[in-house]
Design a protein that fits this description.
It is a single chain. 22% of the residues lie in helices and 22% in strands. The chain is α/β, with parallel strands linked by helices. A 9-stranded mixed beta sheet has the order 3-1-2-4-5-6-7-8-9. It is globular, with a radius of gyration of 17 Å. It starts with 20 loop residues before the first strand and ends in an 8-residue tail after the last helix. The protein binds iron/sulfur cluster. Iron/sulfur cluster binds next to loops.
Length: 236
Amino acid sequence: MPKFTQPDTTLLDAINPLEAEFLVSEIFHSIQGEGLRAGERCVFIRLHGCSLRCSWCDTPYALDKRTGGVSMTGREIMDQIKSYDCTFIEFTGGEPLEQIAVHGLMKHCCELGYTVAIETGGHMDISHIDPRVIRIMDVKCPDSKMSSLNHLPNLRKLKQLDEVKFVLASRTDYEWAKHIIEEYDLSNVCGAVLMSCVFDALSFKSLAEWILEDSLNVRMQLQMHKFIWDPAMRGV
Ligand code: SF4
């Protein structure tokens, strides 16, 4: 089982996010494929490195901090963001919260008037994220093999601006997710409870039928970008 520690956030205010160095996997302009903003143009900043190893991870190239990724300052990242003429940006990964200076960079983007979202794996404390940022948080289900690493206090910190996501590989995952949604009242607490299928593991039809049978107040999603482009294609 992977090991990680929550980063020390006591020095967050002392970090200049424009001078800070980030390990970046890729930055690209695409169509948001998931969540309440699916279909909108978005600039994605994929930070490199993640301590988890989800069995179905679709960005394995962005996990290992010892290989891959390029070093960029926050200022260089901002220059690239500005070149796309797009007001919606999302920090993703890997796990963006494992690079602590991302907090300051997201705050800086909010102050410039961008709509900012972060997609996080759910194992890192989300409480230091700027309140203007849309938090799209995974809750890892049993088949990911990482569910014991969910940072459960996060589930009590979610609010209407936020979206929570369950990626399901099986009926077991679905039943587990249903239990968590009920226990934490997520359908009322969050702006959206998202359910999606592990591509090629669980059929969309099965998930749709289960949701209808249970009258579950969730939003099923298909990861639009995987239908527009080849599912394995990077940078889209
Ligand atoms: S948390 Fe996300 S990036 Fe990390 S291994 Fe899991 S799916 Fe991949």
